[in-house]
Amino acid sequence: MTRFLTRLVVVLTVITGVNYITWRWLASLNWDAWWIALPLVIAETYSLIDVMLFGMTVWRLKIRKGAPPPPPDATVDVFITTYNEDLDMVMTTALAAQKIRHPHSTWILDDGARPELKALAEQHGLGYVTRSEDWTSDLPRHAKAGNLNNALMQTHGEFLLILDTDQIPEPDILEKTLGYFNNRRVALVQTPQYFSNVPADDPLGSQAPLFYGPIQQGKDGWNAAFFCGSNAILRREALMQLGLVGYVKETEKSIRRALAASQTAIKKARKSADMESPLVAEVLDEVEAATREAQKELDAGKSLSEITYRVRRRVDAAVQTLVLADVEALQSDLEEIAAMELAHVGEAGVPVVADDAVQRMSRRDWSPLGALESVQAVLDALSVERNDEAQPVMPLATISVTEDMATAMRMHAMGWESVYHHEVLAYGLAPEDLKTMLTQRLRWAQGTIQVLLRENPLVQKGLKLGQRLMYFATMWTYLSGYAAVIYFAAPIIYLLLGILPVTSLSWDFFIRFIPFMVVNQILFAVAGRGIPTWRGQQYSLALFPTWIKACSTAARNVWFGRPLGFAVTPKARQSGGPSWSLIQPQIVVSALLAVAAVVGIIRLATGLAEPLGTLVNVAWVIFDLVVMSILVRAVLYKGYEPAAEPAVTEKES
Amino acid sequence: MEFSYEVRDSYAEVKADGRLNMVSAPKLREFVTDVIAGGSNRIVVNLEKTAFMDSSGLGALIGCLKAARQAGGDLRIAAVQPQVKMVLQLTSMDKVLTAYPSADEAFSND
């Protein structure tokens, strides 16, 4: 019944919405003021698409009855990821994880490599993992994704429960979720993220009841439930498969790129190389021949390991011949080096022989080719070792700071299925101050836009149309910052200047706009089944500077390789008093809105403006101000104080 | 899962009998790393009696390949069974590794 009602309202929303927006585009635009008329109608179209995607999401809302009993022999690793969080917090979660009833191993994944934590883990019989020696400082660490990828190589449970440091699990979390994996195609079970340190009025909008509710349930209906980084169980096989596919893809890409660049590099090297040495020229000839042959073999479908091995052997042989022939001329150098090496290696008791010296001289870093950087770069890239990463196989996606979304999308593209289990099975801690909250939202938005720009779901092979749109829907919502600016600007422009973006505010407008608006709100009420959605609506508008910043920084990052300015979300409350500077743009906009309202009323009183236009726009301003008002409470919020206990002053803040 | 190895003329043959899955994969890596450390950098992993392999097993093979390459040699696979062949295709790993019919043939042309 609810499902029928939801679908009915979705249909009504689409009909009234398309009716309104079509009319707006075709018959209502005030072309004299196109500079505001066009942006406004585009923003409204954006919002219509947004609500249509929401409608599509809840169309297939899936309410699950719970999982069958878990296979008793399923092996599970519980991962608790940490970087710099308070040790008490880590241990509280870890000890709760230890008490999970289904047999499992609990691991603390400490990216901070803190000896105190290691000692605590040992003391309580918990597993403790830090980055292996492969993660040298010159290689990218990939934050949390890297932490998890590293741990995957050091453990071997069939399933992985991933928990953020602050997410305290219930003992039955595995019993209630593992059974879904009886379906061999299921790769992911996500449970809600719920925060225990949030007051009922949720001033920072931390709980996401709409997302961890109708939206995830709807996505689940389309087999597109998202992985949200924590409180989720994953199938190792699916992750490893992603890692392998990614490894092959990256390796092939790198080899193709290197081969494409090789001719130019060799030409360049010929010019710059010391051409007085005919031997170097000879080696370059050999390199050229080897790369040409490699290209031929690649086109013929030979395996990458064979191709790269042959190139290496051929080039190494050429270099060795060169060195051997040149050895007389190098004799003096050689003696010097041999003396050095003897002194060094001698301590280990390994004798250095002349043959070995020639071998050494042939090695990449010493060989004459080493000086020809462009050629060396080509040769380095012609490999299957993926030397630019700490591990050849990276199961969790590293293309985005929100590795979770990118990973889930790749899983879905591989044909794996996902489950959203709508029951709180872990209790976390939300940010308790605006600054931390803004950092967190910025990171989510940046990560989402990175995925959109790097692996646009609309064109990913393997995804079904519904899945594409489910991923796209979430990305689309993060573009709302630009629409918000226009929604703030339009009433200000009318009230200050009397310029209306529509030809007239007539019966034609209201008869189309009001039904759409009303049905739209009903849709949220019906789909939300009574959950509070107002806070989320407020923040989606009020945080417009964050959304815009996320889009621009993510675009700069993806297109121009600029850093994101990424920061780990601090779990402890940040110090200092109310920080109004955090919401400066919103304060400016609110002031402008208020001034515009006053000016508009004065213009009305002096006969410069018409009553209906003023009324509508003042009402619009009031709505905007009510939306923004949440930020005042957010700035003044002093952190969570449990109602039952007396307020405790926090020392550290 | 049982591992064994034998040094032949121009390579070392590693046999991996049984199921190469997430539990045994790290052991294969360890085993091959030891063989390489023992002085053989040309390795053939004979999969004739590997009835089953999962993605972790394949991941371990990549790790072994990397280790062999870093030691200046190579790692090849031979005599794959139908299930393993399927996994190689599914993950497109057949683009990276050639599956030779037998251990003898793996290094016959190099």
Automatic annotation (TrEMBL), chain A:
Record's GO cellular component terms:
endomembrane system; plasma membrane
The entry lists its GO molecular-function terms as:
cellulose synthase (UDP-forming) activity
Q: Which GO terms describe its biological process?
A: cellulose biosynthetic process
Q: Give membrane topology per the record.
A: Multi-pass membrane protein
Keyword hit for Oxidoreductase? no
Kindly give the CDD domains that the UniProt entry links to this protein: CESA_CelA_like (cd06421)
In Swiss-Prot or TrEMBL terms, this protein is called Cellulose synthase
- Localization annotation: Endomembrane system
Source taxonomy lineage?
Bacteria, Bacillati, Actinomycetota, Actinomycetes, Micrococcales
Keywords carried by this UniProt record: Glycosyltransferase, Membrane, Transferase, Transmembrane, Transmembrane helix
Q: Where does Mn(2+) bind?
A: 144, 164
Chain ranges passing through the membrane: 7-27, 33-55, 469-497, 509-528, 587-606, 618-636
Coarse class of the protein's main subcellular location:
membrane
From TrEMBL, chain B:
- Enumerate the spans annotated as STAS domain: 1-110
Mind telling me which PROSITE patterns this protein's record contains?
Answer: STAS
Record InterPro entries = Anti-sigma_ant (IPR003658), STAS_dom (IPR002645), STAS_dom_sf (IPR036513)
Q: Give the matching CDD domains.
A: STAS_anti-anti-sigma_factors (cd07043)
Q: Which SUPFAM superfamilies match?
A: SpoIIaa-like (SSF52091)
Gene Ontology MF term list: anti-sigma factor antagonist activity
Q: Which family does it belong to?
A: Belongs to the anti-sigma-factor antagonist family.
What is the name listed in the Swiss-Prot or TrEMBL entry for this protein? Answer: Anti-sigma factor antagonist
What is the species listed in this Swiss-Prot or TrEMBL entry?
Answer: Arthrobacter nitrophenolicus
Instruction: Specify the taxonomic lineage.
Output: Bacteria, Bacillati, Actinomycetota, Actinomycetes, Micrococcales
